[in-house]
Every structure is written in C-alpha cells, then in structure tokens.
C-alpha cells in the first residue's frame, strides 16, 4: 500500500507555493544561505542566554537542554484561522459545560450520552468537587488544544489539555526571536500579534475572582525550580507582574488563603496553579507531599479563592473521554462540531479491543493518562518485538488505552542538518475562558525534527516554530 503524501503547508500538490507563503518563499530564495545559517546560530545563542530550556526526564546527561527553534514560520491564512478559532471556542465552551455538569446535576450521564462509569470511576474525577460552585461555572480557564492537519488539509483535534497546559512561553519567545532576527519579514507581512497574551491571561484570571472581590490578588503557584516547565512559570509571572510562589509561601487561616510577604500576610484571591491536583493540598489529596498548601481545598470549597484551572478538570482531558467531546457539543450547545476528532478506538470496548489487537502495526496506541509522547506505540514505526510487548501491556489493562489511525500529519519546510526538508508538525492554540472565551491568533507550533517522525513533543526531541496568522 503506497504511503500517503502528507499535506504540505507551503506547497500545493503541483509544487507551486501556496499564496499565503509566496512573500516568505520569495524572501527565502533571494536570501544568501550563509546569512540564514548565521541567523540560526544567533537564535540558538540568544535562547541560551535567556535561559529558555526544557528539562528532559530520564536523561542522565544534561537534564536541561535547549528546545530547537526553526526559523521557517508556520503561516496560517486569515480565513483558515477564523474557522479554527471558532471551532476551538466552541469546543472549550462545551468542555466547561461538561465539567460543571458532572460535578453537579450529571445530566449528560443520566441521558446516557456518556457511560457513567467512564466518568465517575475515572482516576481524574474528584468527588471532593461535587456540588462545589466556581465563579462563572468556569473550570478550564486555560486550555491547550492540540490540533493537526491531515488528508487534504483538514484540521483535526488530537487532544485537549485542560490540567496544566504548558508551552505558551515558547510561543511568545519564538515570536520575539523572529521579530528580532528578521524585522524585514514583519514589514512585508500583516501578522496578527501574540505578545498581548500575558495581559489577556491576567485579565481573564482577575475576571474569575471570588464574588465581591474587586481588586483581586493573583499569584502563580509553581512546584519549584526542578519542574520541567519552571522557565515558563517564572516567565509568565514576570510578564503578568504577579508573584511566583511555592506552597511554602502560602497558608490558610479561617478558610482564607494568605501569602507571606515582607510586609506581613496578604490575602490571595486567584491562584494560577501549575501543580497537579494530587499535590495541591496534603490534607485532601496526597499527604506525602509538601508542594501544596494545607487546607487549600477547604478555602476553595468555601468560595474564598479561585483556582485556575479548577480542581477536577483532568477528567475532561483524559484520552478515554476525548471521543465523547463531539457529543458534549451537541448536548450542551445544540450545535454540530466545527472541528472533527480523530477517529478513536476505546479499548475498554471489546469490539474496539479486538480490532486494535488485529491492527497494531497500523495504529497509534496511547495511554489514557499519558503525556509528553511517552507510553505510546506508533505501529507503522515499531518493530515486531515492540508491537508484541505492547500487545501484552494492552491485554493486562485494556481500559488504560485508546487507539487511533496513524494520521499523515501535515509537513512544513524546516531547516535541518541537510538543508531545508519537510517535517511533520502540530499546533497548540491556547484558549482562555473568563468573562468571555478568547485566544490569541496562532499558538505553539511543534515540529518533529527527525525525518519521518510523527512525535513532536519537546521531551521526545521535537522543536518549535513561530506561528503566523495573517490578518488579511
């Protein structure tokens, strides 16, 4: 069976340059190769100087490394972005409605649209949140929705990241880098800005403060400097002009949350948390951790502090819940989904399990709680031994896995050691829910730098590109 040629972001099927890439392509053709090489080296040097690194778990040598940055941008025309943005807003509205419902009336479960045990027995479902009202019924204040293109260029949602989605700092720094290195390109293109994201994020966080708080204090809660995304935590706190805090900097008294400062205690109204549920409150969740704040859940349940994202959102970004998002859109919004899911086999179902086991060499199999490109099998790229080892894993716990067809992800020209060559990529736009649902144009484009690789995650050797949404 011949391999399907991936959709090329820059070139049409006849080899001509797509209209929205023509200005850039013309610039690239007339720019000396040694100047481009010099700019790539300059970019690496600047990223090192700023300290934009990513911690890679499991590597013994040099756990901190630079995320490779590619200077060929991913360009999206205005009309395509309008469709994509509308679909993303629709999806996040439905996801928020779903989370509010499952912690209150559970109408979607009563209607039989999603199996109740799939939700209520899910490891990410938090019974402690049942009946808890949160400001605006917003649970996923910051969502990173992973989108891919396949086929003839159709967009598909690959997964929803609603717990502590990361990567927005790289979106911002990639844009800064391109503007610094190639100001002439920005003079030639009408590119929608992204640098206002920290202001938009802060505005959204302030808008969901507890009732009656007019001038809320917002903090960013980090697990500390050893976390893989610590650079981003520090970066965003600095950009928003808020305090970066660890659990030891906070305490609860009379169901109010306070921050220790040199001027004495200061009440905290909104926490942008970058810590998983399990570590937020040792009195409520894991008692063996000191990353969180004892008593935080009681203050939260009393409505004295807002946590973004809300405790318990993880159930909606579980990969076993993902197949039901189109049904959520129909159920809560009465609309048809604007963006399609990737067809998904849920291996707790016998027919899906049987099909997957018979076609492992053709499918991508993922752990439902997996992240970062770990715990997955890419059948067409796996050896017979790897497939058989994964088969045994599935048979031991089929409910822990889903499977999807191996999509031929779109490709974009990318600078590699051999020159310019196509590499597969995805896109993570960041959708903010506050008094309204908003997003900046673009997102984080991640690119698989190894030839033929479909794994774009930074932890698996992927790189990033600047994402340009054209305004006209």
TrEMBL record:
Domain Circularly permuted ATP-grasp type as annotated: residue spans: 73-448
Pfam families: CP_ATPgrasp_2
Leader sequence segment: none
SUPFAM superfamilies with a match to the protein in the record: Glutathione synthetase ATP-binding domain-like
InterPro entries attached to this UniProt entry: ATP-dep_Glu-Cys_Ligase-2, CP_ATPgrasp_2, UCP005522
Protein name: Putative circularly permuted ATP-grasp superfamily protein
Species of provenance: Povalibacter uvarum
